[in-house]
Design a protein that fits this description.
Helix content is 39%, strand content 21%. The chain is of the alpha/beta class. The strands form seven sheets. A five-stranded parallel β-sheet has the order 4-3-5-6-7, sandwiched between helices. Strands 16, 17, 19, 20 and 21 form a five-stranded antiparallel β-sheet that branches. Strands 2-1-11-10 form a four-stranded mixed β-sheet, sandwiched between helices. α2 (45-61) crosses α3 (78-89), α8 (206-224) crosses α9 and α12 (301-318) crosses α15 (361-369).
Length: 600
């Protein structure tokens, strides 16, 4: 049965009705895939629906009532999806939580959400979250997805996942019929990791996520064709981007979802699972671009010649200057180079969708040149989260994030701030009236982002309102653009620029790991960033890379001096958010003395 003949999304009153409808339509077709040993194992739509029903029944028996919050702490796996749906099916509210959270992070979310129960996947994750619960008044019930030992001290009550979903007598149709929630009802609390300050609980309704799914399905159906779609889920499902884009959007499409084993296995997972759609962040594109370039370099002069020709043609096309004389080479590239690149992505990818942070236009042009369709989207957790997205029908202009989704209105305030209206907008911040009133005014979400609409109605993002640097002369400077250009250089892996209230811009640099290793080997030096930091010979090529970038920057944007970081920016050291955006306030606190020293 063709997907387009299936129940239209606008007729669904809530996320559970959408899921149970798709499960009934799809039956024994595969739905959720995970890697077990050397093979991928699937769970059908019917099996998933039965497990959702059984767990929802069990949660009700355990005392979970409508409106109760249930924290979900799990890596990407089938049980995450089943638990999420079961919590909502029981009338409760899911609180997805990052697996990288510290005990303090968990404690904050437990206290703020007042979660009644915790569903946790592994013993390792349970150790941290249970410690937080023991010091809290909340989270007294723990459900372990994998077998684990949880002490009964502190009035913590433990239940085993298998015993709960294995209960007999679950009536899926009865459970589906009982899911009479309205679109405005609260579905989940997504705690924004943020680039500063304590996380706030964003109240996403069933309707806000459904509206997002409707807008995204509209793009797929009309610009690509809605077929047997396959997703590879990689980004953390506790993040709004993957929660909607990597879980509920596939459900809306009746698609299959494969759960990746992690970054180190991602390339192999892509080849094996052959996704048609994949949700990613710019940082991943940067890594993939670096790997592709290195792979092509090792394949000899012909491959490098074809690669350069593809990039030249792509650059001209992006600038609207593609020549008729490019046609023969374009055809040759379609026959020789681009099929090889396509195979690295499984051979049937329709689109790679970038979001979560700004994408450097050069990265987008790079992948487009190689025959891969890359769509850049824009959004916020407060908008469930997708506001706009590029689509072929409006022209893939890489320095825009496309037109607003179906049903979304965008307005630009006098100061350039982007305002958003539509069903996708959050209900507000949980237990935070002051911040809600600041963000939601007269029905418009104040995004805190600066931008404008181009002549075709596509949104162009300039920068985060709060991230804009104002130098000592009053010039406004967008740091993300400069940082994106710096990380395109082969010597530079990560970068943060600073210069607020200062006479010029300075940079905090993390060298590219592979480049650093090779430099250390070539120069007989120790491959340790702290040891290399004061080595003037090591700094020379990094400074030269910054100088190359400066040639393309305005005078006020040029990075005059740099200092090296002690280590890479990571989620683990709290210097990046889980969506791989740098946490500026953390980096400024850690390196303020060195950065200040660059002005002496």
């Amino acid at each position: 049965m063709a997907r387009r003949s299936r129940t239209a999304l606008e007729h669904f009153p809530n996320l559970l009705t959408m899921f149970f409808t798709r499960a009934k339509e799809r039956g024994d077709a595969p739905f959720l895939w995970h890697r077990e040993g050397d093979t991928w194992q699937s769970r059908s739509w019917r099996e998933a629906a039965e497990q959702v029903c059984a767990l929802a029944d069990a949660l009700e028996r355990l005392g979970i009532k409508k409106g109760d919050r249930v924290m979900l702490v799990s890596e990407n796996r089938p049980e995450f999806c089943i638990a999420d749906l079961a919590i909502m099916a029981a009338g409760a509210v899911t609180v997805p939580t990052y697996t990288t959270n510290t005990e303090r992070d968990h404690a904050h979310i437990l206290e703020d959400s007042r979660a009644k129960a915790i569903i946790v996947s592994t013993q390792k994750l349970a150790t941290t979250v249970v410690r937080a619960a023991l010091n809290s008044r909340h989270g007294r019930m723990v459900i372990g997805i994998e077998p684990m030992r949880i002490g009964q001290g502190g009035d913590i009550h433990y239940h085993d996942w298998e015993s709960l979903i294995g209960a007999e007598g679950c009536d899926v149709e009865k459970r589906a019929a009982a899911c009479d929630f309205a679109r405005e009802d609260l579905a989940c609390l997504i705690y924004t990791s943020g680039t500063g300050g304590a996380p706030r609980g964003v109240m996403q309704s069933h309707g806000s996520i459904l509206a997002n799914c409707e807008g995204c399905v509209d793009i797929i159906a009309n610009d690509f064709g809605w077929d047997e779609e396959v997703f590879l889920s990689f980004l953390p499902l506790s993040h709004a981007y993957e929660h909607t884009g990597g879980q509920f959007f596939p459900i809306a499409l009746g698609a299959q979802i494969y759960y990746s084993r992690g970054l180190d296995k991602l390339a192999a997972d892509i080849v094996e699972t052959r996704p048609t759609l994949m949700i990613v962040v710019p940082r991943l594109f940067e890594v993939l671009r670096t790997r592709l370039l290195k792979a092509m370099e090792s394949q000899g002069k012909v491959s490098n010649y074809l690669l350069q020709k593809a990039l030249d043609i792509g650059e001209r096309e992006a600038g609207g200057k593609k020549r008729i004389t490019d046609r023969p080479m374009d055809l040759l590239l379609d026959m020789i180079l681009r099929p090889k690149i396509s195979e690295r992505f499984g051979g049937r990818i329709k689109a790679l969708v970038s979001g979560g942070a700004p994408l450097n236009p050069e990265i987008g042009t790079f992948f487009h040149s190689l025959g891969l369709t890359l769509l850049q989207g824009y959004g916020q957790t407060e908008a469930a989260p997708v506001v706009s997205c590029n689509r072929p029908s409006t022209g893939l202009k890489m320095d825009t994030v496309g037109p607003p989704l179906k049903g979304v209105d965008i307005r630009i305030a006098e100061d350039g701030e982007i305002l958003v209206s539509g069903e996708l907008v959050m209900n507000g911040y949980w237990r935070n009236t002051e911040e809600t009133e600041r963000a939601l005014q007269d029905g418009w979400l104040h995004t805190g982002d600066i931008g404008h609409l181009d002549e075709k109605g596509r949104l162009v993002i300039t920068d985060r309102k709060k991230d804009i640097i104002v130098n000592d002369k009053g010039d406004n400077i967008a740091p993300q653009r400069i940082e994106g250009m710096l990380t395109l250089e082969p010597e530079i892996g990560q970068a943060m620029v600073a210069g607020d209230k200062r006479p010029y811009m300075v940079g905090l640099i993390v060298p590219d790991a592979d480049w650093q290793k090779q430099w250390a080997k070539d120069h007989g030096a120790e491959n340790d960033l702290a040891a290399l930091r004061d080595n003037p010979e090591f700094l020379k090529p990094l400074s030269a890379a910054v100088d190359r970038v400066n040639k393309g920057l305005a005078a006020v944007e040029k990075v005059r001096r740099i200092v090296l970081a002690d280590e890479a920016f990571t989620i683990e050291n709290d210097q990046m958010t889980p969506s791989m955006k740098i946490r500026r306030h953390i980096l400024r606190n850690v390196y303020h003395e060195r950065l200040d020293g660059l002005y002496r």
